[in-house]
Amino acid sequence: xxxxxxxxxxxxxxxxxxxxxxxxxxxxxxxxxxxxxxxxxxxxxxxxxxxxxxxxxxxxxxxxxxxxxxxxxxxxxxxxxxxxxxxxxxxxxxxxxxxxxxxxxxxxxxxxxxxxxxxxxxxxxxxxxxxxxxxxxxxxxxxxxxxxxxxx
Length: 152
Known about the structure:
InterPro entries: Bacterial_PTS_sugar_comp, PTS_EIIA_man-typ, PTS_EIIA_man-typ_sf
CATH topology: Rossmann fold
Strand order of the largest sheet: 2-1-3-4
Domain PTS EIIA type-4: 2-129
Strand content: 15-25%
Protein name: PTS fructose transporter subunit IIA
Helix content: 40-55%
Number of helices: 6
GO molecular function: transferase activity
Low-confidence stretches: none
Number of domains: 1
Largest sheet: 4 strands, parallel
Number of strands: 4
Order of helices and strands: EHEHEHEHHH
Structural class: alpha/beta
Shape: globular
Radius of gyration: 18 Å
Distance between the termini: 33 Å
Keywords: Transferase
């Protein structure tokens, strides 16, 4: 079972994520983006995502911010429709979006495993978030040493 994929968010976030997915995967025509920006009213945004969810019984929606207006809008629509195969995943990293998108593209997601797959991808993506403090970069540059610790 393939899930329809939607990306919602503020500004041009959805288009940016779609662009990155297309660059990395060579695909992306099957992704629908919903930008909530200066040209889109909240009413039009709700109408557009409602139409998407009504025409796609099985859907994965990636949202930029948990609790943001796009997230709240689509969560309300999904809760009101009470459909079982529609999922919102928010505040998620590009690594996790890419992983789930590829699994979906290769028909590895279905109604029996999707929740486990989503939870697994979120779990393994957390350790992938790293930072390298500037003090470490300066110290490494001074000693001409390099370390992969903390690097992406």
